[in-house]
Amino acid sequence: MAKFTTLLALSVLAIQAVAFPQHQPLAGLTERELEDLLPRFKPVVPPPPPGPPKDTSVKLVNDKDHPYEPLRKGDIRGPCPGLNTLASHGYLPRNGVVTPAQIINAVQDGFGMDNELAILLAYSTMLTDGNVVTNLMSIGQKTPLTGPDPPAPAIVGGLNTHGTFEGDAGLTRADFFFGDNHSFNQTLFNEFVEFSNKFGGGVYNQTVAAEYRFFRIQQSTAENPTFTFVTPRFVTAYRESVFPFIFFVDGRKADGQLSMKDAFGFFNESRMPDGFHRADGSKTADLVGNASDAIFAAHPVQPGANAGKVNTYTPDPNSPTDDCGLYETFVNLMVKQYPNPQGVLRTNLNLNLGFFFQGFPGCTQLFPFGQ
Ligand code: HEM
What we know:
- By secondary structure, the chain is mainly α.
- A 3-stranded antiparallel beta sheet has the order 4-6-7, with no helix packed on it.
- The protein is globular.
- It starts with a helix and ends in a 14-residue tail after the last helix.
- It binds protoporphyrin IX containing FE.
- This is Heme haloperoxidase family profile domain-containing protein.
- Its cofactor is heme b.
- Belongs to the chloroperoxidase family.
- One of its GO terms (molecular function) is peroxidase activity.
- Keywords: Heme, Iron, Metal-binding, Oxidoreductase, Peroxidase, Signal.
């Protein structure tokens, strides 16, 4: 606690010193935003994750309480069209700085994602991209809005951080090697449309997802000398490929066929179609599991990476492919950033680790900092 308090005091001083008028890290923040910001820089005890909702029914989610609003100056968006959309409709704070509990509630309420997957995603990213002391995470770039950073090698870089959760061969986001790994990329979206025309008769569905996932792996192998496709990216990439035809399709239709117009709205504009209804939350866990297995089976690939040159993809037999391996990999990625945490940092890492483990029933719990 002492360490954090000192860090906190220093950071507040630093912020006061640089706040006016045009200093870099805080550029874009108004005086009012700073006033809101400073009191939030407190260590918090993270609450346990919300459980599954009682109501998982198909229902209107682009409603009058959650209208789309365009970005205001300083609002943050990132590589995930799901979270971007939830922020632009007010299911998440519109500024893009969020807590794990807010993420879990938002993905359940707004899209019908199941509790276990929501927990897995929210805490894997919190532990590797978020500030566990203030319990805040950016859904995009690094920002002072998450509070003072714990000491390096902690990154606290938000979801844009490459190599923690964000990875190569995304659907509409370019590989980190090419510069911008988080913004909507029109060239890639054109490919996405081309594949949807060729394999889906103009819509994105499971068949298209299988072909486009495989193509993006081949494309990165051929064009990105640093292409890396080991776990966690190996596992998350297959899941992300199926999310669009499960969560971005209106729940009243739920036929797994996503129109290009609606896809463009979610991927580029962070916007739900008018009258959009969420998916049936009692079905999405099975749908995601089965569909990601199916698209993998269509073109099995082993985890691996290019060896510093294009077209040198080398399988990595040590990269796990199962859920427990995914869990272990995230824990190890976290420990790299927090080799010897103390005080509130250690306490909160342990709490978050415990919450994260709830996303992996059946695996063996790890206690990197002792029990
Ligand atoms: C539950 C919390 C979630 C977290 C923490 C999260 C995080 C992320 C991150 C970090 C990426 C970038 C990975 C990459 O491509 O390199 C991503 C991509 C993606 N996410 Fe999410 N996500 C969440 C929920 C959702 C939901 C609910 C949806 C759908 C409604 C969704 C749809 C997608 C899609 C389609 C991509 C691929 C984007 C692309 O490559 O074009 N995600 N997510």
